[in-house]
Amino acid sequence: xxxxxxxxxxxxxxxxxxxxxxxxxxxxxxxxxxxxxxxxxxxxxxxxxxxxxxxxxxxxxxxxxxxxxxxxxxxxxxxxxxxxxxxxxxxxxxxxxxxxxxxxxxxxxxxxxxxxxxxxxxxxxxxxxxxxxxxxxxxxxxxxxxxxxx
Length: 150
Known about the structure:
Elements: H1 15-38, H2 42-54, E1 56-57, H3 59-66, H4 70-82, E2 86-91, E3 94-102, H5 104-125, H6 130-149
Antiparallel strand pairs: 1-3, 2-3
């Protein structure tokens, strides 16, 4: 490694870059499962997975949980609705708002994809020792908390 001044960013050693790069590669590799086999996109999978976990949510909540912008969530919701994987239900307290939830078809799709996604994850983390996996999860939690403080 060459000696560079201390104020030069070396992307291969810059944690924000490395994490974004790894996350993008992970997302792209994992997306092959649901894109090729089930014809859904990364944002659609994120919406589907959140609704499977939470049962019903507003679009705004999905955006916050998944860190997706409003337009990306909106397009994913519209696509899933067109494919009959989710439905909207007007909020009785606010007619302008609508809860989203999975249809029977959407739940079935999730139940087909989830085991494949979990198997992919097991293969991905198989290079780690159990203690390294625990450390990684602990480190990610610490960094998640720290980024909110700075």
